[in-house]
Amino acid sequence: MTIGTEPIFLESDPFENFLIGQGHCVGNLVFLSGQAALDQHGQIRGVGDIDAQINQAMANIERALNAAGSGVDRIFKITVYLTDMAHFDSVMKMRERYFKKPWPADTTVGVSALALPELMVELDVIATRP
Question: pLDDT by residue (tens digit) across 12-56?
């Protein structure tokens, strides 16, 4: 581990079995691992339902950011990985629901697959903390 980083730990961490950390804080910056539709027990939520998967991923982001002393309102960069770009309208709805001006910087990428075949979206964020 690099000096000056602080790992983020969650009780009931669904990433534990994948050998992935939730994220790290570096000063007042919070870097999270990509979040998908896995609940805190590692079960996939919203199979076949992009909106449910986005909502679960955002709930995971909120949980991890809270553990880091931050929150969704402090996200300034988000990367969205979609297995089907036809779901871009759902990404727009997510932006309206969870963010406000000034909008976070955003990159949306179409990918052929994610780590598990049932996953349709993964969200990767960078935020600040006080």
Answer: 887 777 888 899 999 999 999 999 999 988 899 999 999 999 999
DSSP annotation of 2 reads -
Count Cβ neighbours within 10 Å for each residue of 98-117 and write b for 16 or more, e otherwise: beeeeebeeeeeeeeebeee
Sheet with 121-128: strands ordered across: 5-7, 23-26, 29-32, 121-128, 75-82, 105-110
Q: What is the pTM of this model?
A: 0.93
Q: Could you tell me whether strands 75-82 and 105-110 are parallel, antiparallel, or unpaired per DSSP bridges?
A: parallel
Please name each of the domains of the chain with its CATH number.
Answer: 5-128 (3.30.1330.40)
Structure tokens at 2: 């690099």
What are the DSSP calls for 7-25, one per residue?
Answer: E---SS-TTGGGT--SEEE
